[in-house]
Amino acid sequence: MQKPEFDKAFETRQKILDAAVKVFAAKGYHEARVDEIVVESGTSKGAVYFHFPSKQEIFLAVIDKFVALLERNLTEAIDQEEYGIAQVEVALRVCLETFEKYRNLAKILLIQATGLGDAFEEKLMEIHDRFARLIAHHLDLAVSNGEIPPIDTEVAGQVWMGAVYHVVIRWVRTGEPEPVRALPTLRQMLLQSVGILGDATGPSTSVRSPQIGSE
Questions:
Q1: How many other CB atoms sit within 10 Å of the CB of residue 190?
Q2: Which residues contact 51 (CB under 8 A, 6 or more apart)?
């Protein structure tokens, strides 16, 4: 059973992070001040610095908060699908839906964290590679199941991540195209890039066997 003081500390930390999301999204990283996060969170400067020694640490924790949320959503969705390609497809859909639902967090991750120095660039590279490996893993399963022809899944994972990244970052910056509009075309082009034509509903949708499972 968790101790009350632990619960209180966790609650305070979450308040600070929630406040930081609002402040960073509204002001940007450089213009945001720790004092504004203190006021927004309803805590104290001492509490903020107890949990986060610097504004940079707060920002990195906010990024981690969004990445953990995205990864949890993807894992839960993937676990409900049987086939490798179906898992990749649902991951693509859930990824765009999560970015759409948490646009302020997406803005922090994809726009404000760029160009802020080595620590932030390394964080972005780590995130990019983590999800590219996830894609590659499920593409490997698709290859093993005969859903797609043999490909370099490591490169494919990086390509897929790059495509998703550029679609989402343009939407975050400009509002267009919205994820619900982008998803069908993005899905079609990515699936075609690994040898899938039409709907991917199981291991029989590879271009190598178009006569099967075409209903």
A1: 19
A2: 9, 12, 13, 16
